[in-house]
From TrEMBL:
Keyword vocabulary terms for this entry: Carbohydrate metabolism
The keyword Transit peptide appears for this protein: no
Name of protein: TIM barrel protein
Organism field: Microbacterium yannicii
Pfam annotation, one family: AP_endonuc_2
Domain of life per record: Bacteria
Length: 273
């Protein structure tokens, strides 16, 4: 299933953009924008206001998503037991079937041994609830180490959130990351990426690109991971649209570009079905 994530609304959620131009977009506003694009899945990922919402606000947001026909996934950073337990509770509120996380949070950097201990403690509750925990590929942890951790724990509810763009900063190749993780992928973050020469031709910047115009070999990902194939007893691997979009000189251009990239990515994904 195609979905949108919080990072597809990065600038629209920002208070750097005036509200009259679509800035400071609420969570329910993002649900409504998702529905307006004909998409019925939203991943609330690294969205700081979520953890500050009261029980009543959470209940209202979950009801708004249901009323709009929007299924919800959740995302956070870190695997501390208390954090994973809290997000499992939130998954219950939103009827979410997946929580995406990362081994490291802004406050914790566990060793692989500590990470394994924490995950083994948290996973029985996820297994009992039927909620998947998907750990994202990113530059702070080698893909081989992440895959090895998942294989040692060997839980049906633990897998990978595949984002091959991230691992380039570790000098890993996106295609290698895709192939190494394919058997364990439970979620895909969809964005294109490219290098561009800096001004004066001294060095490069690495950032986002309109889907289909950058370096991401998405057909290879589709052929390797096969996210849209549902086998007996298996759940579809959802593809969540997000962007690496830098500020575009002014609020109007930034928001317009963000919306255009979202529209183009949805069209690209639909064209590959």
């Amino acid at each position: 299933m195609i979905g949108l994530g919080t990072y597809a609304f990065f600038w629209q959620h920002s208070d750097r953009v005036p509200a009259r131009l679509g800035g400071s977009l609420s969570l329910v506003g993002a649900f409504e924008a998702t529905r307006a694009l004909g998409v019925d899945l939203f991943q609330i990922c690294d969205y700081a206001p979520l953890e500050a919402m009261s029980d009543a606000e959470l209940t209202d947001a979950a009801a708004a998503a249901r009323d709009l026909g929007i299924a919800v996934e959740l995302g956070t950073k870190g695997i501390e037991p208390d954090r994973l337990a809290r997000f499992l509770d939130l998954a219950g509120v939103f009827e979410a079937r997946l929580v995406r996380s990362m081994l490291y949070s802004p406050d914790t950097r566990p060793t692989l041994a500590q990470a394994e201990e924490w995950l083994r403690a948290a996973l029985p509750a996820y297994e009992a609830s039927g909620v998947d925990l998907a750990l994202e590929t990113y530059e702070q942890v080698a893909t081989a180490d992440l895959v090895g951790l998942i294989e040692r724990i060997d839980s049906p509810r633990l897998g990978i959130c595949l984002d091959p763009a991230n691992v380039v900063a570790r000098l890993e190749l996106p295609r290698d990351c895709v192939e190494a993780t394919a058997a364990h992928v439970k979620n895909v973050h969809v964005k294109d990426f490219a290098f561009a020469r800096q001004a004066g031709w001294v060095g490069f910047t690495y950032g986002g690109a309109p889907m289909g115009e950058g370096l991401h070999d998405y057909p290879h990902l589709l052929d390797t991971v096969r996210p849209r194939e549902i086998g007996a007893g298996e759940r579809e691997v959802n593809e969540i649209v997000e962007h690496w979009l830098s500020w575009q000189a002014d609020p109007e251009t930034t928001v317009r570009t963000e919306r255009e990239w979202t529209r183009r990515t949805i069209e690209y994904l639909r064209s590959t079905t």
